[in-house]
Amino acid sequence: MATITSLQTRPSGGIRGFGRFLLGELKPRGPVLTPFNIVTGALILVTIVLLTIRFAGGLGTITNLSQDVPWGLWIGFDVVTGVALAGGAYVITFMVYILRLEKYEPIVRVTVLNGFLAYVFYAGALLLDLGRPWNVINPIIGNSFGVSSVLFLVAWHFLLYMTAELVEFSPVIAEWAGWPKLRKRLHALTLGAVVLGITLSTLHQSGLGALYLMAETKIHPLWYSEFIPILFLVSSIFAGLSMVIFEGTITHKVFRDRLGQPLREGHDGILIGLSRICAGTMFAYLGVQVITFVHQGRAAWMGTGWGAWYLLEIVGLVALPAVLFLVGARRRDTRWIKSAAVLTLVGIIINRLNVTVIGFQWNAPVRYVPSWQEIVVTLGVISAEIWVFRWVINRMPVLDFHVRPQEGRPADASAATAA
Q1: Could you tell me which residues are beta bridge partners of residue 404?
Q2: Which residues of 158-197 are buried (b: 16+ CB within 10 A; e: fewer)?
Q3: 10-residue mean pLDDT series, the chain (419 residues)
Q4: What global pTM score does this model have?
Q5: Which helix (H) or strand (E) is 402 found in, with range?
């Protein structure tokens, strides 16, 4: 079966040939001065300036962080929220490589790429929030190991998971570079990397929640619970899959010329299948929330502004999209599914910020409010990630690879065209 293939010239002539090939790939493709490029490019440039000031003068020069509030927007959104939204990678790889649900194989490469870039950029954002970022190497080299710290666990999980995702994606890089023998060897490592990645991801998704078990007196009672690790883990499933639906919808429109036939034909069916999984995990999440609501006597807060904000999150941004997912799946209407995915993403962002920023030290006389510089840096990091994602999509066989029906495995797109 023919499919859309990458048309770049394969490198030849050893290192020099590959160097020429790489230089050619670095050249922009398409219009440069588009509104999107201008806005995001300006954000990236301003971010570079602000980070230069931050590293030269310290955190206090551009942030509203203090000794009382050492973690702010960069941790609450870039790291805690970003990791939840990247959860689609471990869920999709589990479905494709472990459960053998080959229906979802056309999206496995783009999902792994999205997850890998998210961890790289969000882990990089973690360095921005450290007063002494050079000490980040301590857990790796054994200096001040701190094995009793949850952060030690999270640090090693982040490092190992990024490595596992790089191994999962490496066959795509070898295929793009024209190294078939290396691609075959790297492909043999995929299953082991997937198993390791799933294990690590489930642990550090809950591990991020475990960090806040030690802050019982600081987090608002409506968001503190001994079940925070479980809630973080379960919510990362439907958060990650909602991100896959959202990102896939945009990719289907923006990169339609790069879509291979399996993804083009199976797009709606994939969204419908993912919507059912989202709905199931969201109802499980709501069940745990009901248990904590009753067990912790949260009804006493329902007459307050905090109670209204809590109900908006649980009812409007969890229960409602769960129902919309079911309706969309039953009617096979992707419009309902896409709307539910957007509501779910908003709900996850609000939930993570409620735990880490909004509801954190909620009764303090002076509340933390992120500075405009912190917001711009966050937008700049997201813009840089989108630029790298777009560069990879436009050059590597991420969306336009062929799936052999008899094997259920991706094959080199150029080989499919030759056939």
Answers
A1: 409
A2: beebbebbebbbbbbbbbbbbbeeebeebbeebeebbebb
A3: 41 67 77 91 96 91 88 90 93 94 93 93 81 79 71 83 94 90 92 93 88 91 94 96 95 88 89 97 96 93 95 97 97 96 97 94 89 95 94 90 45 37
A4: 0.88
A5: strand 402-404
